[in-house]
Amino acid sequence: MPRPPENINAEISPREFELLVKDYLLNLGKELNTFTATHDIKIHRVDGEYQIDVFAEFEFLGASFKVLIECKRYKNKVKREVVQLLFDKLRATGSHKGLIFSTSGFQEGAITFAKEHGIALIRVIEGKYNYFTKSTNHPNFQPPPWADTPKYVGEYCNDKYIAYLQDGHLEPLKEFLFD
């Protein structure tokens, strides 16, 4: 299956983007009694205050977990420094998992650093790019109305596969969080 083009950026407002990501997380945590996801939170620590786009907390197998999620709506690909900053926030806040959602993709250095430090990277694209046809190179391509494509999907790549995340199809993200 071909991947969507690299040079597409989802047209989404910053708030809508962050709330979409929060909804993904809330859908993942539906089966847990103690799962919470909070949008736009400030975490206070001795060494400073950290603004987090989405913060999730849950209990799993008797242990408490904290997850930091950053949403980057950039024109250019996310750089390694952004992933390093999230890694530093994870350590400073005592959080266990980190994810970065981006509308523009990630530079190679960011991907390498994220793999080495267990941070998930997800590129958010318009759902129409998840509909495959023989001629997707047409500049005004639109899937047919009956295709029922979501407005946005998250492209999640790991060493084994590429998955397209949307409500009802979040298993790879669940595997990342609960593994």
Task: Give a description of the structure.
With 179 residues, the chain is an alpha/beta fold. The chain has one domain (14-178): Trna Endonuclease, Chain: A, domain 1 (3-Layer(aba) Sandwich), CATH 3.40.1350. Helices cover 26% and strands 32% of the residues. It is built from four helices and seven strands. It has helices at residues 14-28, 80-93, 108-117, 171-178; strands spanning 36-45, 48-60, 63-72, 97-102, 119-126, 152-157, 162-165. The protein has a seven-stranded mixed β-sheet, with helices on both faces. A hairpin with a 2-residue loop joins strand 1 and strand 2 (48-60). Helix 2 (80-93) runs parallel beside helix 3. The radius of gyration is 16 Å and the shape is globular. It starts with 13 loop residues before the first helix and ends with a helix. The mean pLDDT is 84.
The total of helices stands at 4
- Biggest sheet, spatial arrangement of strands: 1-2-3-4-5-6-7
Number of DSSP-assigned strands: 7
- CA-CA gap between termini: 27 Å
Low-confidence stretches: none
What percent of residues are in strands?
25-35%
Secondary structure: elements and pairs:
Layout lengths: L13 H15 L7 E10 L2 E13 L2 E10 L7 H14 L3 E6 L5 H10 L1 E8 L25 E6 L4 E4 L5 H8 L1
Parallel strand pairs: 3-4, 4-5
Antiparallel strand pairs: 1-2, 2-3, 5-6, 6-7
Helix pairs in contact: 2-3
